[in-house]
Amino acid sequence: MTTVTHEDVLAAAGRIDGLVLRTPVLEVSPGLFLKLELLQHSGSFKVRGAFNRMLSAGSLPPSGVIAASGGNHGLAVAYAARELGVRAEIFVPEVTSPVKVAGLEALGAHITQTGAIYSEAAEAAAKRAAETGALGVHAYDQAEVLAGQGTTGLEVAAQTGGVDTVVVAVGGGGFAAGITLGTLSSEGSSAGGSSGSSEGGAPGAGPRIVAVEPERIPTLRQALRAGEPVAVEVGGVAADALGATKLGGLAFEVLSGPRVESVLVTDEAIVAARRTLWARHRVAAEHAGAAAYAALLSGAYRPAEGERVAVVVCGANTDPTTLTT
Known about the structure:
Elements: H1 6-16, E1 25-29, E2 32-36, H2 46-56, E3 65-68, H3 72-84, E4 88-92, H4 98-106, E5 110-113, H5 118-132, E6 135-136, H6 143-149, H7 151-160, E7 165-169, H8 174-182, E8 208-214, H9 219-226, H10 239-242, H11 249-255, E9 260-265, H12 267-281, H13 287-298, E10 309-313
Parallel strand pairs: 2-10, 3-4, 3-6, 4-5, 7-8, 7-10, 8-9
Antiparallel strand pairs: 1-2
């Protein structure tokens, strides 16, 4: 299997510099930071990986790029393709929200809505890519994509002055794995997140990573129990963005390391966190974007006294009229 390293994340940062935003960090209480990745181009972190994948490929084929997505990855690929002047074809499942479909249309993507869940849309996209020769941009299980997502971790480390813990949502795992590598210190930059201690700030390691999943889509939790990625049932309020059927292999290689702690949150906790982000901070997150914050709000993860924590709010593609419902 391809190995992704901290050095790959650094290379991605140079490659996509000027094409993505350095999203802000908000210190909402002493030592508690919100990394507002929902303010990124296309409304989520995923544009980082999309740009890195496309630019790493060199010249892009005349048929352009193709992707399957629950919505956010498709929006990111469509945005990056538009900026680079190439065609984008996006396959989305039936659970994709109308807000995200409308966003894809606005970006000029060619859209096919098929399959009940992400994995079925992904199968259709792979078949189409084989027919057309378009460059496939995977939502999470691709080295260039994972490295691009990891540039968020570089920013967290720089903007906060260093934290003990980063709390991040998991679907297919590419974002959490990228952040794990991106926040790795240069002395511990070998792959797999396995070097150093699980304690935040340990030499050659990096902050603890709290990987948060909805109880109804526990891809990481089940992979850790089985010792490898396994298929899970998909459902719940965050299924359109965190609805991968199986954790990515690259992500498993990283997230099975000692720095990572897996926690689960209920749909009710996610809904409450989304409301609270809006009520307290006027942060308009989608359900998946609020999942990491739900871990703190519900007590699924309880920081120690004095622990410095960064929570990544990762998606904003939502209907704003539902923020208080």
